[in-house]
Amino acid sequence: MGSHGIKDRVAIVGMGCTRFAERFESGLDDLIIDASQQAFANAGVTKETVDAYWFGTAQSGMSGITLARPLQLEGKPVTRVENFCATGSEALRQAAYAVASGAYDMAMAVGAEKVKDSGFAGLNMYPIPNDGTARTLTAAAMFSMVAPAYAKKYGVPDDEMGQVLARIAWKNHYNGARNPRAQFRKEISIETICASPRVAGPLGILDCAGVADGAAAAIIVRAEDAHRYTDKPLYIKALSFVAGNGSGLIDPDYDYTHFPEIETCARDAYAQAGVTDPRHELAMAEVHDCFTPTELVLMEDLGFAERGTAWKEVLAGTYDLHGELPVNTDGGLKSFGHPVGASGLRMMFEAWLQLRHEAPEDRRITNDRTLALTHNLGGYPGEMVSFVSILGSQPG
What does the DSSP 8-state code read for residue 257? Predict the structure, then answer.
């Protein structure tokens, strides 16, 4: 990787996040306004103060007008971006680099998605013509291949593998039950999770993240200006993005037990931030648990466990709310929900709350570390994009 990074050159000074749910009572404009107004209030600024905007949405709008209209922006540059499920993170990345470059004093990233009353059950990607050789499996089917591949490679019995995946879902629902913004606010027993109807291979319906409506927003300024807007800014330590070339689908050596794009992205982010031991240096991590086996493999790809050992760490409670390294303290995609354009910023919102010690007391982390990681992926095993950020409550 050739990135030199922008460590401690910019900071987040305001954030907002709506409740994620089937928001039939709210339109896309309502969600955008809600998240944006929270961020403006956090930073003590108005929409006029922001020099430029980046708007992330996968399929709820096609230009910057989608943001400019509800916020009634006048004479402002608004860039609409999309990068699969990493769309919200992409909006933040571009806004942060714009401020770091000196082009703007203040930029804002907003991510939003409205899909629940579209007439479709999930994401509705328009059919792109192809030569007939493209993948035809659903997302659940593609990620379901990870579980048996991992179990076979590392000698995990099928029944124990089921317990590992259920433990991941149980943890995230436990955390989400304590989050007023989460889509699913109910603890679910491991027995119920294991008995849920199968949807693809070994995956049950409770192994899969929900599709939701929602929005989130962040305001970014130069680090030296941060204390003009808040006494508890979050400093951006690293922003890394990798786009895979899809070769995993045709590579006979690819075995579905790791995601190479994420390994590369994580190494770059750690190098930018100066992190050498993520498991013991990070206070928490928000990761892209679109399906339970995804989170399992991510623990190894992100360096939180040695290869072939993450399943044991899951069962030992290492990633629980009060474990050695809390993961998805807000419930993750599994419980918080997944409005594609907003999810990356939602993860940063949780880091914002936790590192500022503003998370609700019953789901507040208890370690005294000052760094958080957020991770998005988009696509499928063998063909994906990956984003990793490192955020910190202290400069230096």
Answer: S
Share of the chain above pLDDT 70, in %: 95
377 three-class SS? strand
Q: How many CA atoms lie within 13 A of 38 on its CB side?
A: 17
Q: Domain of 46?
A: 10-116+212-234
For residue 375, the SS3 value is strand
- Please determine, for residue 124, whether its predicted confidence score (pLDDT) is greater than 80: no
Residues 194 and 334 in one domain: yes
Examine the pLDDT at 1 and tell me if it is beyond 60.
no
**Res 376 pLDDT > 60:** yes
**In a shared domain, residues 322 and 386:** yes
- How many residues does the structure list for the chain? 396
Burial class (CB in 10 A: 0-12, 13-18, 19+), 243: middle
Closest-CA residue to 46 (of 227, 235, 236, 219)? 219
List 337's β-bridge partners, or say none: none
The helix or strand, by DSSP H or E, that contains position 16, with its residue range, turns out to be strand 10-17
Q: What is the DSSP letter of 94?
A: H
**Which of 251-261 are b and which e, b meaning 16 or more Cβ less than 10 Å from the residue's Cβ?**
eeebebbbbbb
Nearest to 35, CA basis, from 183, 182, 215: 215
Give the other-Cβ count within 10 Å of 22's Cβ: 14
Chain-centroid distance, C-alpha 26: 23
Q: For 191-243, how does the pLDDT look when each residue is reduced to its tens digit (9 = 90+)? A: 999 999 999 999 999 999 999 999 999 999 999 999 999 999 999 999 999 99
Q: How far apart are CA 68 and CA 137, in angstroms?
A: 37
**Residues 220 and 249 both lie in one domain:** no
**DSSP state for residue 327 in the 8-state scheme:** B
- For residue 72, the model assigns a pLDDT of 98
Which tens digit of pLDDT belongs to each residue from 13-31? Answer: 999 999 999 999 999 999 9
On whether both 162 and 272 belong to a single domain, the answer is yes
125 inside domain: no
217 plus 362 within the same structural domain = no
Contacts of 186 (CB under 8 A, 6+ apart): 173, 177
